[in-house]
Amino acid sequence: MRAPRSASISSEVGWANIVPAKATKSKLYQWSKAGGQQVLGKLCLVLLVIDVISNNWAIIDYVGDAKHLLTPMLDLNTPEAMLDQYAFPSNESPALMSKVGRFMVNTSFAHIQARGSHTFMLGTTVHPIHDSVNDICGQLVQTYPIKDPNATTVQLGNVLDSVTFIRGNALTHWFSDTNSARQATKGMNETQLRAMGYTPGRHSTDLRLTTPLVLPPPGQVTTGSVFMYRYFMKALCSGCVPLTELGLDTCVIEYTYNENAKSLEITTSKAIMGGSHELGIIIQRRGGPIAALYVRFSTLLLLFGVYAASQKTVQWMDFTQQTLPQRLLRLIAPPLYRQPCTAIGLSDICFNSDIFVVLYTLTVLLDEEISMIYSRILNRWYANSGFDLWIELRLMSMTVRWLWLNCFLLKAAKWMCHFVSMAQYTGTNTVMGWLNFSSVTWMYLSVLLLFERNAFVEFGNSVIVDLHSTTQNLDATYVLFFESWYVRALPTLAAGVIGNLAGLLALDHIVNRKLWRSLARNSLGRQLVFNSTSILSEIRGAVVDKPGYGGTCVDIKIRAWCTLRWFLASHLTSLGLPEQPHVMRALAAATYKSKSPHRGNRDSKSATEDIEESQRSTATTGPRIVTEMEDTTRTETVSSNSELHVVVQDREGHMHVINAEKREMQALAVEVKILRDTNILLG
After folding, report:
1. What is the tally of structural domains in the chain?
2. Do 247 and 357 reside in the same domain of the chain?
3. Helical pair 389-400 and 402-420, crossing angle rounded to 10 deg
4. Which residues, 6 or more positions from 663, have their beta carbon under 8 angstroms from its beta carbon?
5. In this predicted structure, what is the pLDDT of residue 553?
6. 140 and 233 belong to one structural domain
7. What is the SS3 assignment for 512?
8. Contact residues for 455 (Cβ-Cβ < 8 A; gap 6+)
9. How far apart are CA 352 and CA 361, in angstroms?
10. Residues 260 and 395 reside in one and the same domain
11. Whole-number Å distance between alpha carbons of 510 and 622
């Protein structure tokens, strides 16, 4: 039985307390930090659930809330039939559209008529109109020919075909003059726009159709209201399948009927302030979003299975002998004891499990086409309307997906750093020390910039001008995919994501430099930071002092260690670097000294030199800011007779727990410790 410790030690103390109590911040700060982490974790979980439910395109399409926005199109057999039912102005008629504009109208019309499995029909959200920004009724101000002199009502139509030209991006707006230099004005042709640095970024065709309007007596100015349906077709390249933004507004108009000219003139048209705009979207249903639904469902099942397994003590297994089917099965269903265990939290699985991070990142990428377009259109209308908690949460949930992209980039960076490095021992790769977060709180903070993703894209595309088909023929004006509205924003968005990660990593290592210094002096800490694809270094254990050993010792419940060992071996990629020889010599010297306390000064000096050499060689591989090791005072001490173990890997990446005599811990001994609920000391 282990000798009693001189002070009680709680196994629930985290790595955040790895610095001695005298060097830590106040307890109030620690409590507030833990509470803040719990709040952020629960908020992230809520957003994940909202995203799965409310941003499920198949469910939204099945509900069919946007179908009433198709009413004007339901009895039209062909696009040409619009000319028979609706009156169009002579300068904004389908006859003046470009070939790409006609293609977009025909494609959108086919989607509306088919309403099949090739499209998602997404809607609706309702957005209050408080100012002119969300007022789109002005396009109705035109003169409309009346074909039938005996008609008592008329339905109005209006179509505007254009190509949107964009100059610069977010980086050039900040570091160059693309935002401040003289901007183009309406009416310039393509040659003038290109000379000013503009490039085509989007095809658009804006079609408006109204409900019947009663013709007034000739010459009488009449005020009335009319429902206006909007079909705003957009394509991100010439010939690409367009998406269609649907809308419904109530417009207040002033109009008069000229009997001699057989025309109806609308002089003013405005939305009702305090009214609302209904929004819907028709977008092509590709294979990616469909595959994302199945992958996401499988990933969530994996999450629930792994979390359920992690809440019990996992049996001590020999991972070197397991076959591939056994390894896949034990990802979710390892052999368990009935004793409970809280060594692994939900956030550890969500953000640190290789399999979960890879699968959920795949889900994000497969669904990103629709997600980015839908969130941008929704954000464009919501930004200028009143606060709506549900829409706010939906937008945040679509953005928080990129949190897993952050995790994947960090894991990929660790793997690539190991692949190109010439390091032969764990702890000797300097860069690897920077590619870890000390706790999940820093991971949550990385999403704050992501919440501004839509604003970032809008800022990059803020210097724009529309070239209309009434200004010049648009048949020879084309849009390249890599210069389109969203794709052109991706490089600067990627730079922002990487810069955000790099800044938070640097800040974490500066603020918690004592923590990282202590982590580098512990074998378990080195396995997490330098010798695996783990990006979180938060483990529940207590930091203690062992007489004669100069490294960091972690006292952890054996039940917690069994479950943690399973997670490290099954859900993380081990990089297979052995420990430095100095570490083993220091461990043997410390153990030998504790068993022979009356040895002479020569042996004591030799042990001390090995320990200091081990500390120096490990410390110099961490972040440069923490190269010097501090000699701090521990407040809790274990008996010098407590057996010390270290965590090591062999060349094949299998993890072993050995003592000073290089004897590996065996399952039978572990089972006895589990039943007795004892601790293990990891140096």
Report:
1. 2
2. no
3. 10
4. none
5. 87
6. yes
7. coil
8. 379
9. 12
10. no
11. 12
Give the tens place of pLDDT for each residue, 253-308: 999 999 888 999 999 999 999 999 999 999 999 888 999 989 999 998 999 999 99
Cβ contact 607:548 at 8 Å: yes
Indicate whether 378 belongs to any domain.
Answer: yes
Say if residue 180 is in the same domain as residue 309.
Answer: no
User: Of 284, 306, 336, which residue constitutes the final position of a domain?
Assistant: 284
Distance of alpha carbon 614 from alpha carbon 622, whole angstroms? 13
What is the 8-class DSSP label of residue 681? E
DSSP letters for 320-352: TS--HHHHHHHHH---EEEEE--SS-HHHHHHH
Tokens of 167: 């100059």
The tokens for 77 are: 């057999």
Within a domain: residue 311?
A: yes
Q: Which two tokens stand for residue 360?
A: 């959920």
- Same domain for 208 and 139: yes
- The span from the CA of 527 to the CA of 546, in Å, is 21
Q: Is the pLDDT of residue 22 over 70?
A: no
Say whether 360 sits in a helix, a strand or coil: helix
The CA distance from 273 to 140, in Å, is 17
Residue carrying structure tokens 């509306």 = 112
Distances (CA, A) of 32 to 24, 26, 348, 443, 595: 14, 10, 20, 17, 43
Among the listed residues 440, 603, 626, 444, the one whose alpha carbon sits nearest the alpha carbon of residue 536 = 440
* 107 and 216 co-located in one domain: yes
Size of the chain in residues: 683
Query: What is the distance between the alpha carbons of residues 149 and 437, in angstroms, rounded to a whole number?
Result: 75
The answer to the question of residue 577 being in a domain is yes
Whether residue 205 is found in the same domain as residue 340: no
Residue with tokens 């309007």: 213
Domain that holds residue 332: 15-51+297-438+512-682
- 315: tokens are 């049996």
Give 132-180 pLDDT, tens digit per residue.
Answer: 999 999 999 999 999 888 889 999 999 999 999 999 999 999 999 999 9
Which of residues 554 and 594 earns the better pLDDT score?
A: 554
DSSP annotation of 169: -
Q: What is the pTM of this model?
A: 0.85
